[in-house]
Amino acid sequence: MVTRDPLVVFVLLVLWKGYCIGENAFIQEEAIDHGENITLPCFPLNDERSGNDRRTNMDDIWLNHEIAMWVREGREDEQISRMSVHQDGSLSLTNVDRDDSGVYRCLVEDEIRMRIKLEVRAPPPALSNVTVVPSTVLALLLWEVTDTGGYPISHFSARYRLKEPILFSDHDTEEKSLHDYSWHWVVPEQIKPSVREIDVYQLRPNSSYVFEIWASNQLGAGEITQLETHTQNNEAEIELARHLLEGAETFDTRVWVAAVAVVMGTLVMLALGTCYLLYKECHIPNINLDEHEIMELVPNIILNPGFDDDGGVESHYERDENCNNRRAMHINNISTAQPYRI
Questions:
Q1: Which residues pair with 214 in a beta bridge?
Q2: For the stretch 236-274, what's the b/e string if a residue is b when 16 or more beta carbons lie within 10 angstroms of its beta carbon?
Q3: pLDDT tens-digit map of 6-16
Q4: Can you list the alpha helix ranges (DSSP code H) found in the chain?
Q5: Residue 83 half-sphere exposure, CB side, CA atoms within 13 Å?
Q6: CB 90 within 8 A of CB 43
Q7: pLDDT at residue 64, as a whole number
Q8: pLDDT tens-digit profile of 280-320?
């Protein structure tokens, strides 16, 4: 079906022309940090025309810089005071912020000469889906990251305090209550960028707390997210926590360091002793008999079990009552030669 409505045909032609112009326009990407100034050119830097032709064309166009118009998607009125167009058609932005990010188009006589995608890097925005799951004396803090601000997140930070101070008549209890009302950092103070949840300990049962959490990158701390929660009142959990956390505040970590040092020192001494014994065993000389002596000794042992390796078959002993100075000797496996009497 082909339409003959002139208005429809005109709109289609305009849309087709705008699509072709938008596709053929050069897209340039720029990035800048929050609070700095930047100038966006109206002509691409890779213009293929020769220097003279390009200079002549620009002189003809910029005799009146008012013919250059910059358009940004979703422009805000507050941005106009920080924008200015120069004689050559370039656009200057001062003290940029995250709201200045977007695609800028330079139009000359209704023709797009340049499209620039500007990214303003800034501290991270507020975290998303921040929730607190309270218990009796502890709480679980969870969060998600949707934007890093242009730079990788270096760490997270979180802190908490009582919503309202609880005053008591007792002076010591009053000081402790005021201490709890001040801000307390969640340990560790710099949470790893890969972490998305953390436990908060030593809270008061049945109390209202205020939590704050934010992300940081190399440009600084981001927007703070604040929320409130109320801890539960469970007697069983309170008693269990009292026994588990008893002495935690006064615990001296130097005791653990000393114990670990003693254990490691003992293991090192055992390892050195083992290495020394192995070294000594490897350096004990091996006693090897001469091959000729071994061959001569074997048949003598087989033929004469009474063979004496001192050099003779017969040995002289102290005379007995029969004046015998020799001992009995096996001739073979059956017969035994007894010493004769004198």
A1: 157
A2: eeeeebeeeeeeeeeeeeeeeeeeeeeeeeeeeeeeeee
A3: 555 444 554 45
A4: 6-24, 51-61, 77-80, 171-181, 235-244, 253-282, 291-303
A5: 18
A6: no
A7: 44
A8: 888 766 555 555 555 555 555 555 555 454 544 455 566 66
Angstrom distances, CA of residue 197 to CA of 161, 186, 336: 18, 11, 94
Contact (CB, 8 A) for 193 and 123: no
Closest by alpha carbon to 314, among 285, 332, 339? Answer: 339
Produce one character per residue of 131-160: b if its CB has 16 or more CB atoms within 10 Å, e if not.
ebebbbbbbebebeeeebbbeebbebbbbb
CA distance 296 to 121: 94
Residue 336's H or E segment, with its range, is: strand 336-337
CA 156/CA 196 separation, integer angstroms: 9
Q: How far apart are CA 270 and CA 283, in angstroms?
A: 20
Angle at 32 between CA 31 and CA 33, to 5 degrees: 135
Tokens of 187: 């340990």
Q: Would you say residue 126 has pLDDT above 90?
A: yes
Sorted by sequence, the CB contacts under 8 Å of residue 103 that are 6+ apart come out as 72, 73, 115, 116, 117, 118
What is the per-residue pLDDT across 138-190, written as a single tens digit (0 to 9) for each?
899 999 999 999 999 999 999 999 988 766 555 556 566 666 678 999 999 99
In order, the DSSP letters of 132-183 are EEE-SS-EEEEEE-S--TTS---EEEEEEEESS----SSHHHHHHHHHHHS-
φ, ψ (nearest 5 deg) of residue 182: -75, 165
